[in-house]
Amino acid sequence: MKSLEKAQKIIFIALAGIYFTYAAGVLFQEARLCLAQFRTMRGFSQDQKRITLLGDIMGFADTCNKIIPENARVLLLTNLASIPGSEDLKLNYFVYPRKLYWLNLERPFPDTIPDFDEKKYCALQKQGINWIVYMYSAPVALYKIVQLKECRVIASHTLARENGQYVSDM
Amino acid sequence: MSAICKLSYLGLVFFCAGDLLGALLFKKAFRENAALRFALAYGLGAGTVTLLLFYLSCAGMPLTFGTVALCTAPVIPLCLYYCFMKYPVAFAGMRAGEKNAGGLYWWLRAFCVVCIAAAVAIVFFRALFLPMHLPDDTVQWCIRAKIIFTSATVFADEFFEPHRVLYHAHYPVLIPLLESLVFMALGEANDVLVKLPFPVFFAALLAFFYAAQRRFAPRGHALLFTAMLAVVPVFLRDVTGNPASGYADMPLGFFYFIAVVSLMSWIEHRTRDDLLLAILTITLAMFTKKEGVVLWFLLLGFAAVAVIVKDKRVSRDVVRLLAGFGLAPVLATMPWAYFKTLLPPAPWWEQDFGMANFTAAFIAPKLSRLPVLLDSLWRTMFLFTSYNVIWVLFFFSMLLAWRKAISLPAILFPALIFGNIIALLAASLLYPHAWWYNFAGDMPRLLMFNTPLLVYFISLQASSAKTISI
Questions:
Q1: Phi/psi zone of residue A163: left (φ > 0), alpha (ψ -120 to 50 degrees), beta?
Q2: HEC states along chain A?
Q3: Which residues 6+ apart lie within 8 Å of A5 measured at CB?
Q4: DSSP-derived pairing of the beta strands A129-136 and A152-162
Q5: pLDDT for A10-47, tens place per residue?
Q6: How far apart are CA A135 and CA B437, in angstroms?
Q7: What is the number of CB-based contacts under 8 A between chain A and chain B?
């Protein structure tokens, strides 16, 4: 019985040893990673850090923030299903206090982009929505910002991705 | 007043409010060492100030820094007078005996201190150097904080507009309110400094964990297992839910751990203070995350059974437990429950655990998920990258001192851990939509709040103590 207890204690100490050996490795690895992050990003603004960490979505959010005024109400047309981790929800966060409204929550738009006529633009403007953001990922890949006034489109900014950068064509 | 002064004021208010509340409720209890006092002061302070903010908003007061300053201004002088004059911070007075340390023990302690300090430094660095960049900290928690900050109320129109998508809008509001407090102090929605409360929760958890062990173990033992908790890979890596991110998992783990340990202590010693602390912290856990309600329910059930078994009858203490631990948290969170009824219905992908789902026809087709979920669970528990060999140590420690493991109230630790795993598997299995596989991918985070319980149980088993008491 005593030899069993002794064996158990030895196994326990061995397991604790394995635990701390691996943990020391993780600590060292994470400390190195932190140092590398610090060296790479120490001169970055917070926006630059976000672009480094989050990629393309930050470029689009940044463009939206430049073009759309802060108090705007915006209709978001997207083929993304608003699920955890989805980019439309990230856009919602990064463009705040611009308010995004989704048209169809139960079933997001399929890959065909809906047509809007004057009547629909008027209906949107009556609800205080003067901007539309198109955010369509593959296979359509359309990123567009549209401004409405007097029931028609008065400005449109289509964003094309060239050389890994978003550029406005208007 | 500059933003940094306001932020410092806010930090001071958290500590003073928590310490004052502790002094008023518990008198001299839970203040025998600085680590315990720091942990409880911060946790209770941050939690109760946030809860107060919610009640103020329900009463129609605007949520601005001015309101917060007005309501909390008396706290600091009162705390200074009442707490520090009457109950000064003690740095000694531990219960467990000390071994005369030297040689190897000294090096072991130094190694543990270095591990803890390095882990805390990594967590603080990540929190304060990187902006929020993980999925849920932004789109689930901080977006609601931005809305509360901008509209100065929890009753902002945006929460009620059906065409605004707010991911998990029905989730409790402690984290968004805590973050909005930071925004109020800074005067802007800064998503780097807003993470400041989260690594402090991590430090407070380690401090409480150490102090809780000091009641039954010497310093070296307590340090060793605190170091073990500090360096769990899921805490150190930049993964979802880590203490440097703005996720609710660390605050939930903190409140839940205190609730469990103090309730265990109450089952053993039946002191009013233990029960009161458990009630307070489980209320804050319920106000932190939806899982808090499941944890409360499990804890209540297991504790009631434990008391009946221990007393061999339905004693008055069972009534006390049900009335205090069972009813008080429900009453305290009732305004939140009412608030939720005003919100638009949760989107289709959030509707899990509906009563209509508990039918054979609903469950049978989902049984095919089980192999995937169990595979993910197995990998999370036993592969090094998430939890190192914590789970192996946990199972082995049950063998190591099996008599202690099956005695009351120690057995409640494994019971709660297995209960949580079963609840997690049930939630993943019953989730009505195709996104259930998110549960499998997110398993390391979903098991995170069990980690302090796991390590505490291992520590308890490895110690020579016969009773649990904090």
A1: left
A2: CHHHHHHHHHHHHHHHHHHHHHHHHHHHHHHHHHHHHHHHHCCCCHHHHHHHHHCHHHHHHHHHHHHCCCCCEEEEEECCCCCCCCHHHHHHHHCCCCEEEECCCCCCCCCCCCCCCHHHHHHHHHCCEEEEEEEECCCCCEEEEEEEECCEEEEEEEEEEECCEEEECC
A3: none
A4: unpaired
A5: 898 999 999 999 999 999 999 999 999 999 999 999 88
A6: 25
A7: 130
pLDDT (tens digit per residue) in A68-118: 999 999 999 888 776 667 888 899 999 999 999 987 665 555 667 788 888
Q: How confident is the model at residue B466 (pLDDT cuts 50, 70, 90)?
A: very low
What mean pLDDT comes out for the span A63-71?
92
DSSP code at position B161: -
Cβ neighbours of B109 in A, within 8 Å: none
Q: Would the pLDDT of B3 be above 70? A: yes
Per the CB < 8 A criterion, the answer to whether A45 and B416 are in contact is no
On whether the CB atoms of residues B353 and B72 are closer than 8 A, the answer is no
Task: Give chain A positions within 8 Å (CB) of B383.
Answer: none
Token pair recorded at residue B61: 């007061």
d(CA A66, CA B310): 66
User: Which A residues in the span 83-102 are in contact with B, Cβ-Cβ below 8 Å?
Assistant: 83-85, 88-90, 92-94, 96-97, 99-102
- Which residues, at least 6 apart from A168, have a Cβ–Cβ distance to it below 8 Å? A63, A157, A158, A159
The pLDDT tens digits of the residues spanning B62-86 come to 999 999 999 988 888 888 887 777 7
Interface membership of B160 toward A (CB under 8 Å): no
Q: What gap in Å lies between CA B391 and CA A140, rounded to an integer?
A: 46
Q: Check residue B470 and give its pLDDT.
A: 42
- Percentage, residues of chain B above pLDDT 90: 61
Residue B267 burial (CB < 10 Å; 0-12/13-18/19+)? buried
Joined together, the tokens standing for residue B136 give: 């849920």
Please report which helix (H) or strand (E) contains residue B297, including its range: helix B291-311
With contacts defined as CB-CB under 8 Å, which chain A residues touch B349? 81, 83
Q: What's residue B352's pLDDT? A: 63
SS (H, E, C) B182-226: HHHHHCCCCCCHHHCHHHHHHHHHHHHHHHHHHCCCCHHHHHHHH
